[in-house]
Amino acid sequence: MTNTAEQSSGPVPPIEDPSHIFRLDGQVAVITGASSGIGAHFARLLTAGGARVALAARREGPLKELSDELPGSIAVPCDVTLQEDRERLVRTVTERLGPIDVLINNAGLSEIVPAEQQTVESFNNIVAVNLTAVFALSATAGAAMLERGRGSIINIASVYGLVASGSLPQAAYAASKGGVVNLTRELAAEWAARGVRVNALCPGWFWSEMTEDMLGNDKGRSWVERRTPMRRAGELSELDGALLFLASAASSYVTGAAIPVDGGYLTV
Questions:
Q1: What does the pLDDT look like over 39-61, one tens digit per residue?
Q2: What is the pLDDT of residues 213-229, one digit of tens each?
């Protein structure tokens, strides 16, 4: 809250162009799940914003192609479920690009299957990628951020981390993304006083490789449109503002937030 008694009675200085607070010039960003879809889009976005980007995913071929496209970037093949790979990722990025300023935990899996038919092995595999790896990589990269006293971690959750998916059964995905949202709050609370911010981005339905099976046919697309007040799925570019906000100094007083970008999906 603002204490009006402390406000200056002098002339109010003009507000300069605020766009610079969204820039990431000279910063080092790591994106998991960067070989396609939202991850590849975010890599292009952060490069355009001035960051030097490390691309991490299991598929080496697409990673290399994207890295060749983005100046100053590097490709680091990585299975986020393996601790040795996570440690190698952080070590390689630090050695080749410098200390990590921004970590985007984007790698994810889903499976649409009724809960009573999903195997424990499948459930555990999805949780391992979507939740356990988010914690483990955040802890590994976050340790160095805490030593430096600054950093931003962005966890890509989902609207299904905030509500059940209901008639689209995916218990493991919903459980893992719900865990990501509350993990985000916990890490934010633990690390806020030490300069590291942790936030979650919760997309609704967006066109990507992961949603192609759903949005690429009339029945699935109609299902999404009926449940979304804007009556359409989102374009990846419509995530840009929220991501840049969370990654940059524009959100310097924001931590522990779970920000939906969903065309109104959560309002109904």
A1: 999 999 999 999 999 999 999 99
A2: 888 888 989 999 999 99
pLDDT at 212: 82
Question: Domain of 71?
Answer: 25-260
Q: Assess if residue 14 is contained within a domain.
A: no
Positions annotated as catalytic residues are 173
- Checking if the pLDDT of 4 tops 60, the result is no
Q: How far apart are CA 222 and CA 65, in angstroms?
A: 34
Find how far residue 188's CA is from the centre of its chain: 15
Number of domains the chain contains: 1
Evaluate whether residue 267 is within a structural domain: no
Q: Whose structure tokens read 């396609």?
A: 36
pTM metric for this prediction: 0.93
**Is residue 107 scored above 80 in pLDDT?**
yes
CATH number of the domain within which 234 lies: 3.40.50.720
Within a domain: 10 = no
Distance (Å) of CA 230 to CA 109, 234, 243, 256: 26, 9, 21, 27
Residue 12 lies in a domain: no
